[in-house]
Amino acid sequence: MHLWEGVSFADGVPIALFRSVFPALRLPAPPEALEDTHSATAALAQCGVHDYTRRWTRPSAEAADATQALHLRCARGAPLLRTVSLNQDPDGRPVEYGRIWFAGARIQLRVDGD
Question: Per-residue pLDDT tens for 18-66?
Fold first, then answer.
């Protein structure tokens, strides 16, 4: 497995921590592609996955631990919105398993139905 972690910013303010895991046997090049592109979508495309969809997302809430608070510049114990998700290719094979911890005070979650 390949692991990619980082902090997402909006207007210079940290809004999320992310951790993505990619299947190494199927996609051997994501570390280099991620380093080049800084984008999971672009890296997957470089590895031959030109289309993928979100299979599921599971949101939950939790309190920021000391490390999360440091990176998100918020108080320890501040509310975070955590999502766990799985992306798959058109054949239904997983291409990315991800977790994101959003700073609760800086984001808004919107879910629309079809």
Answer: 999 999 888 877 778 888 888 888 888 888 899 999 999 999 999 999 9
Which of 59, 57, 101 lies closest to 79, judged by CA?
A: 101
Supply the CATH number for residue 83's domain: 3.40.1410.10
CA distance readout (Å), 78 to 7, 24, 88, 101, 106: 17, 35, 32, 11, 11
What is the predicted pLDDT for the residue at 46? 86
**pLDDT at position 27, please?**
81
Does 33 map to a domain?
Answer: yes
Burial status of residue 114 (CB atoms within 10 A of its CB: 0-12, 13-18, 19 or more): exposed
Counted domains in the chain: 1
Torsions phi, psi for 66 (to 5 deg): -60, -40
* Structural domain span for residue 75: 2-106
The torsion angle over the Cα atoms of residues 29, 32, 34 and 35, rounded to 10 degrees, is: 180
How many Å apart are CA 104 and CA 5, to the nearest integer?
19
